[in-house]
Write a structure and sequence with these properties.
single chain, 714 residues, mainly beta, seven-stranded antiparallel beta sheet, six-stranded antiparallel beta sheet, 7 helices, 8% helix, elongated
Length: 714
């Protein structure tokens, strides 16, 4: 066997020669949207977006960087990416135990983090926060313990206390709202103001909320041009809450709060508020009536709190249907975010799929008068495959399938984060017309491979040896995935799988170079090394210095036991070396795809037992009795049409793979071909149907579709 690094290099440059042997191969990818986390977790999403003083973007969310399971929970991370989506690897990715809902950036570049958080971990283990729900990171992402100390239990430590929004003011002081109590008195419940260092600003009185203690939570804060503070939230199951305060927290006497209610069977709350340049107030959430005026989940108020009937929803307004084509399956629409552009147009996001009878999935732009701006975006771009609408959450505002946050950098750069998989994953940058670019480029699994949205794998595909898990102990399932052979590459995202020419490329993590060669002692024996790699249309595992008796592939496949399969054992030769190839190919169910596995070892197949699941219910394939075989190769491929690989297809693919990784030795049969006088430089005993050869004057070239030395080429 050649040096394993040389094999990696040859595959990186020659993988196309292998995959070209079979037409229309399927592109594998991480299937992030089907990971099920058994914990109090919404799943992978970006929940907060903010612009850093460096000009980069700060993103926070769950699982969009990497799923890490500890006791069945996934965690929230904060990271930094450039405007072109390049991750800042010098930025410490601090982890929080539960959910991050909001970010604020101070002029020093320090980052205020709020949410349902009680612990943090910057790499040295979990540490309790002094005040649950609130923390500050330094500009480089490390935890700011000074700020944490200054908070000094300002927020009561109740298990369900949540910070929903932080707003950093011009002097770096911080408004904080949510569902919490001040640990000393009720005067600062639900809304507090902190000095820039995290100490409490005791001059901020908040007497409105003190006198109206029924307010269960404050969800959002907006500041108008006169530095008045508008807060919105939920007061009871059927009534939304809004108040306007002076900058010291006292009530603004010029403002009369409207009555916002929900007459249907859904809870009522105001989730978001924004202010236009004329100080008119836009409110969003879940409601259907404002001061006896019909208004579905979005409305505009005059600066004094009266209903503004010039904001026109001419038609049905926002709607949500689980089956929009048939107009049925109605759920009540939810507005999670409203942001105002410099021209006073509104970016509105949440959980809805139409506005005034025009299709709009999760996001739309409204003109100043409330009419739909049809020039913004593809109306069906954003979606997820989760049909659930409402999820009980800590603050009763956790909706699935929606955009959670918006940040407007400029009229031509709008960032959105949420729980969606198209047009990009979990976050996207929109231009002024709403066209999305890039998204989450990060992996989520360290073992196994997955497909895209075609349901090849119900679970995943895992690789094991008898040093970790024996085949008899894990057949009919994946076994313990933590014991499986880890991938040494970053796998593609769905965006790339569906569109391999996408400009975002394969989106490898810079800290995990593609196809890294790793020590294989724990999996293949002492002194071994291995790598995995994902190429367009092919997954490969290569191991050298192997000392094992058994190698297995396990997992679930979409065929679900209802289709046919075929197996084979081939004897091939490349560069004078013989190899045994153990094949299992499965026919897909319906229009799905199904995998074909090739396990290759040197030498003959004598003494080797070939195992496989005969029902197609499980993706089980193994070889036993390979002691003494010092190298091992595993290839997974699939055809998009879901048909079985033919004998010719898997034979040609295996042969081409071996030819690419082998050190090619030129042999001459001593003949010339035709009138050209070109010497045939292939071995006249070569068993390969598709001859590879070089000829004088064209080093490294191939000559297609001609006959040389009476042998058909390509």
């Amino acid at each position: 066997m050649e040096n394993i690094n040389s094999i990696l290099s040859k595959l990186n440059t020659g993988h196309g020669q292998i995959t070209d042997t079979v037409a229309d191969l399927f592109y594998f990818t991480d299937d992030q949207d089907t990971i099920v986390i058994d914990c109090n977790c919404d799943g992978q999403s970006v929940t907060a977006v903010a612009e850093h003083t460096s000009g980069d973007m700060i993103l926070a969310g769950e699982g969009f960087l990497d799923i890490q399971l500890e006791g069945g929970c996934c965690f929230s991370y904060v990271t930094k990416v450039s405007s072109s989506n390049v991750t800042d690897e010098s930025f410490t990715k601090t982890k929080f135990d539960l959910k991050v809902y909001t970010l604020g950036i101070q002029s020093t570049g320090k980052i205020i983090v709020g949410g349902w958080i009680q612990q943090y971990n910057s790499g040295a283990g979990w540490v309790n926060l002094y005040s649950k729900g609130l923390a500050r990171l330094n500009a480089d992402g490390t935890f700011d313990s000074t700020f944490d100390t200054n908070l000094n239990n300002i927020l009561d430590s109740g298990a369900d206390h949540v910070v929903n929004k932080v707003v950093v003011l011009s002097d770096d002081s911080i408004l904080v709202c949510g569902r919490f109590d001040y640990s000393v008195d009720s005067e600062h419940t639900r809304l507090i103001k902190l000095n820039s260092d995290g100490t409490l600003d005791e001059t901020f009185t908040n007497n409105v909320l003190e006198s109206d203690f029924d307010v269960s939570a404050i969800y959002d804060i907006a500041i108008d041009s006169s530095v008045k503070i508008i807060v919105v939230g939920g007061e009871s199951d059927s009534t939304g809450f809004i108040a306007k305060l002076n900058d010291d927290g006292t009530s603004d006497g010029s403002f009369t709060a409207p009555t916002v209610i929900q007459t249907q069977e859904y809870d009522c709350f105001l989730r978001t508020v924004a202010v236009q340049s004329d100080n008119k107030i836009i409110i969003g959430g879940v409601f259907d009536t404002v001061d006896s005026n019909a208004a579905i989940s979005i409305a505009r108020l005059n600066s004094n709190g009266t209903y503004d009937d010039t904001f026109s929803q001419t038609g049905s307004g926002l709607q949500y249907y689980s089956n929009p084509d048939a107009g049925d399956g109605f759920y009540y629409p939810y507005v999670s975010q409203i942001k105002v552009q410099s021209n006073d147009k509104l970016i509105v996001a949440g959980d809805f799929n139409s506005y005034n009878e025009s299709t709009r999935n999760y996001i739309c732009r409204l003109n100043i008068n409330g009419s739909l701006d049809a020039s913004f975006g593809n109306p069906t771009d954003f979606y997820n495959d989760n049909s659930n609408f409402y999820e009980e959450g800590i603050d009763n505002s956790s909706y699935n399938n929606c955009i959670y946050d918006i940040y407007i950098v400029s009229s031509s750069e709008i960032w959105v984060g949420g729980y969606f998989i198209q047009p990009k994953r979990y976050y996207a940058k929109l231009n002024g017309s709403g066209v999305a670019s890039f998204g989450s480029p990060f992996k989520i699994r360290t073992t196994g491979i997955r497909d895209s949205n075609f349901d090849m794998y119900d679970g995943a595909n895992f690789y094991n040896t008898d040093l970790t898990q024996t085949y008899s102990s894990i057949d009919g399932g994946e076994g313990d995935s933590d014991l499986s052979i880890p991938s040494t590459h970053t796998q593609m995202t769905n965006d790339v799988a569906d569109n391999p020419d996408d400009s975002m490329g394969y989106a490898y993590l810079p800290s995990n170079p593609d196809g890294s060669v790793m020590d294989g002692t724990s999996y293949f024996g002492a002194g071994s090394s291995y790598f995995t790699n994902m190429y367009p249309g092919m997954f490969v595992l290569v191991a050298a210095g192997v000392n094992i008796n058994q190698f297995s592939i396990t997992g679930d496949i979409g065929a679900d036991g209802d289709t046919t399969y075929a197996t084979d054992v081939l004897s091939l030769t490349s560069n004078g070396n013989s190899y045994s190839v153990f094949v299992k190919t499965v026919e897909a169910e319906s229009d799905e795809t199904a995998p074909t596995h090739l396990i290759i070892v040197p030498g003959t197949s004598d003494g080797i037992t070939h195992y496989y699941d005969e029902s197609t219910e499980y993706d089980d394939h193994a070889v036993e009795g390979i002691s003494g075989k010092t190298e091992l190769y595993a290839i997974t491929v699939s055809k998009k049409d879901g048909t079985l690989f033919t004998t010719e297809e898997y034979t040609d693919l295996a042969q081409q793979f071996l030819d690419v990784i082998s050190e090619f030795v030129v042999e001459s049969c001593g003949q010339t071909c035709g009138s050209t006088g070109i010497s045939c430089l292939t071995s006249n005993t070569c068993s390969c149907r598709k001859w590879r050869y070089f000829y004088s004057g064209m080093s490294g070239a191939y000559v297609p579709a001609i006959t040389v030395c009476n042998q058909q080429l390509f």
